[in-house]
Amino acid sequence: MRNKNVLFITHAAAIGAIYVVLTLLANAMGLANYAVQIRFSEALTVLPLFTPAAIPGLFVGCVLSNILTGCLMPDVIFGSIATLIGAIGTYIISRKAKRNIARWLAPIPPIIANMLIVPQILIRVYHLSGTLLFFTTTVGLGEVISCFILGELLIYALSPIASKLFSMDQNS
Known about the structure:
Blueprint: H1 2-28, H2 54-68, H3 73-96, H4 99-105, H5 108-124, H6 132-158, H7 162-165
Helix pairs in contact: 1-2, 2-3, 3-4, 3-5, 5-6
């Protein structure tokens, strides 16, 4: 049992670290924040399809990323909650839907969570000028690129090795 806990924490930490690195890369390219957000790290939000360890990993990775990229505290909190909600939604889909359908539905919860929460942050916290519809559209497009297009590529790449990569059996 103890080894399973260590593996879970290790998986979560690795996912969180990769999330931070990918966000910092997108931030260096000017893509991580504001109206148009294409965080490469958001592709990782499909990982709860393979392992529940992705849920805390994505949440902690998002918190750290938001702090390191200079986001204001309400953004750190609510932006990270959007990622957490998306990750939980993806995990639920992974358990309820058939594998071939879950694969295509996996990116939907993070896209929706971010489309509902992030535009509010942009308007209320950063006081960016623009309408709610505008920010919902720009954030939504960025999330479709990050979660759906890049996320589906990640699912395709990981599917053949996921059972070994994310196994909680230390003998695998």
